[in-house]
Amino acid sequence: MNTLVIVLIAAVVLVCAYAGYGRWLAKTWGVDPNAKTPAVRLEDGKDYVPTNGWTVFAHQFSSIAGAGPVTGAIQAAAFGWLPVLLWVLIGGIFFGAVTDFGALYASVKNDGKSMGLLIEKYIGKTGRKLFLLFCWLFCGIVIAAFADMVAGTFNAFDADGAQVEAANDQRRCRHGLHHVHGVRRYLRPAPEKVQLLRLERKRTRHCLHRAVLCASA
Q1: Do 165 and 155 touch, CB atoms closer than 8 A?
Q2: Contact, 146 vs 71, CB < 8 A?
Q3: Whose CA is closest to 109, among 173, 186, 29?
Q4: Cβ neighbours of residue 89 under 8 Å, at least 6 residues apart?
Q5: What does the alpha-carbon distance between residue 43 and residue 50 come to, in Å, rounded to a whole number?
Q6: pLDDT, tens digit, 9 for 90 and up, residues 20-72
Q7: Helix (H) or strand (E) holding 1
Q8: How many beta carbons lie within 10 A of that of residue 17, not counting itself?
Q9: Angle at the Cα of 118 from the Cα atoms of 116 and 124, rounded to 5 degrees
Q10: Which of 202, 10, 209, 196 is nearest to 91 (CA)?
Q11: Smaller CB count within 10 Å for the chain: N or C?
Q12: Is 48:38 a contact under the CB 8 Å cutoff?
């Protein structure tokens, strides 16, 4: 499928979800669009400063979409574009967006307090400490997952950009051996692979021969 078509489909789905599902959530939760926010009611020029709505939107958008460029392309390369597209749309609408909307709404209803302070208010100090510990551990897991995915992607290629796994497969076919779960199995390579391996071996020998002649000259 054309990339532009995928982008258009995603844009239409997200806009419809914002206009339909978002409006339903706001109505269900009793959000009053005319109510004054804590930034207006408690304005002090430091912690509470009225800000343009698009600026607030940009901050929230950068927070929720920050991991997309890091993991989106890698996950699509690993699992294909369709599962990742469905996860981004369905997960973003029914999980990520609802979570962020709920957190922001709770914060606005409680004078702009953060989640930690809200948990301390309604659950207690122990709950706040457990929540902060969970956030710290979760951040560590997310960083480790990002590092593992990126490192795994670069580890699949050598310095020349060739796939290491393909080279390993050729090496195993050349020796006629294949390891599966620690068990050595003898496999007979396909005739096409045998021919390609022979041509590659001749080309390698020719390059080595030329290198030796150049060195001796």
Answers
A1: no
A2: yes
A3: 29
A4: 10, 13, 14
A5: 7
A6: 999 999 999 888 888 888 989 898 888 888 888 888 888 877 776 666 666 66
A7: none
A8: 17
A9: 80
A10: 10
A11: C
A12: yes
What is the token pair recorded at 29? 């939760």
For 37, the token pair is: 């926010």
Return the biggest CA–CA distance within the chain: 86
pLDDT tens digit string along 196-215? Answer: 766 776 666 655 555 544 54
Identify the three-state secondary structure at position 157: strand
Tokens of 173: 């076919």
Which of helix, strand or coil describes residue 184?
Answer: strand
Tokens of 177: 């051996």
Structure token digits, residue 167: 């080279």
Structure tokens at 40: 């207006």
Is the pTM of the predicted complex or chain greater than 0.85? Answer: no
Amino acid at 132: L
Q: Where are the strands (E) in the chain, listed by range?
A: 177-180, 183-186
Taking Cα atoms as reference points, which of 61, 133, 134 lies closest to residue 104? 61
Which is it for the CA torsion 96, 101, 104, 105, positive or negative?
negative
